[in-house]
Amino acid sequence: MTNGNIVGTIDAAELALGTFALFFLLLVVWLRREDRREGYPLEDSLTGRPESEGGPISTASAKTFILPFGKGKVSFPTWDREPVNIAAKRRENFGGAPYTPQGDVFAAGVGPGSYANRAKFADLDAHGNPRIIPIGDLAGMNVAPASTDPRGLPVYGADNAKAGVVTDLWVDRAESVIRYLTIDTGSTTILAPMAMAIVRKDRVILNAVNAADFAGAPVPAAAGEITRYEEERIVAYFGTGYLYANADRMEPLI
């Protein structure tokens, strides 16, 4: 009769438990390495220099991803990425200290105006077509009859002054929603995020920025197409206004 041991006092249950413990340990190490890709290496909060790679447990080996529709390749982590320069000054010399924009607040790139250096090509749908396009370029898509069509309505900014008139809509063909409003300011034509707009029966209110600031918003370089990077810059521009458009927005209420 056998006592069930494989070697000495080690039986099948102990062997299974040890195997699972080893597997779980290796899994944790693998996960900790894999989660250090996009956004890494981290930067020193004071100097902005990339921090060291760290040890074997906390450093991911470079991995290359092939982008669909012939958009090239990207590798992460990116050790030679282009440094980001912001037009702002740290209030105090310690990690986590707030920044104060210097000069044009809309060009500072801090706080609600921060943005990512996304790809400089259009966001694509599952068929390789640009997802976000003017509504007139997409047959069969219209504003729901029960909703107010903002085209032709005046746009008012945070100062209740008229900023322009909505002339067109940019829609997401993959999700059938309006992403941007085309606004004619009188001096130029810009795009503004629909998510920041309030549509009334007789007007559109976009209180992120003042009326005079609309004309300075970034615009897509190519007609009828907007890149991921341009989307970041447009949303960041209007996002900046929520904190920096007026003096009474820049400090705590109490």
Give the key terms.
single chain; 254 residues; alpha+beta; Photosynthetic Reaction Center, Chain H, domain 2; seven-stranded mixed β-sheet; two-stranded antiparallel sheet; 21% strand
Please characterize this protein's 3D structure:
By secondary structure, the chain is α+β, with helices and mostly antiparallel strands. Among the domains are: 5-34; 118-249, Photosynthetic Reaction Center, subunit H, domain 2 (Photosynthetic Reaction Center, Chain H, domain 2), CATH 3.90.50. It has two helices and 13 strands, in the order ββαβββββββββββα. It has helices at residues 12-34, 228-244, and strands spanning 5-7, 10-11, 63-66, 73-76, 88-90, 99-101, 132-134, 154-156, 162-172, 177-184, 189-193, 198-199, 204-205. The strands form four sheets. Strands 7, 8, 9, 10, 11, 12 and 13 form a seven-stranded mixed β-sheet that branches. A hairpin with a 4-residue loop joins strand 12 (198-199) and strand 13. It is extended, with a radius of gyration of 26 Å.
Quick rundown:
The chain has 254 residues and is an alpha+beta fold. 16% of the residues lie in helices and 21% in strands.
Number of helices: 2
Assigned CATH architecture of the domain at 118-249: Alpha-Beta Complex
Strand content: 15-25%
Largest sheet: 7 strands, mixed
Nearest-integer average pLDDT: 89
What's the arrangement of secondary structure elements?
Layout: E1 5-7, E2 10-11, H1 12-34, E3 63-66, E4 73-76, E5 88-90, E6 99-101, E7 132-134, E8 154-156, E9 162-172, E10 177-184, E11 189-193, E12 198-199, E13 204-205, H2 228-244
Parallel strand pairs: 8-13
Antiparallel strand pairs: 1-2, 3-4, 5-6, 7-9, 8-9, 9-10, 10-11, 12-13
